[in-house]
Amino acid sequence: MVVRVIGFVLLIAHLLLVAWIGLLPRDVAWVTAPNTVPLAGLRADLALGPAAAARLIAEGLLLLAPLGVLLPMCDGRLDASRWGSLARTTAAGALVSLALELLQTAVPGQVVDVDSVLLNTLGVALAHLLVVPAARARLRRRRTDPHGPRPGRGRSRGRGRVVIGNEADQGRTPRIPRVPIAR
Question: Do you know which Pfam families this protein is assigned to (predicted)?
Fold first, then answer.
């Protein structure tokens, strides 16, 4: 519960920061044309040289990358499917990026760039892949054994199934027979 609240607060703070950065009017003498051709802006960035291209591409990847961690954190499910979580998070990141680009059409000095949507979405997906599976695994381990490993409480095998901790001392889980439904 605490993780969800912290995730939600950080998500709101990050989205406000992104909105402030992305929707701040720019005082410029001229504005470039909108880029609606995928990867054309990346080719133009690469033509500027390796240092400038790396900086511009990193900015695009890192702008919304925290969403890849914060959105699953707000969800709070530890047993979610890896691929389902990645798909949901990436889709949400793409929608946030698209909304930001569409809102920029009304801001003076800001132009639409389809490559920004692609880079922002890729950044969300990469952040999710790099952080979320490991964090969920660690939290699952902490949930099952909050005090960490203790002597004599490791994993052992018993009658064809894996026994964790002192589960064998408590016996088997009782089975409830099915009760037919009255018609």
Answer: VanZ
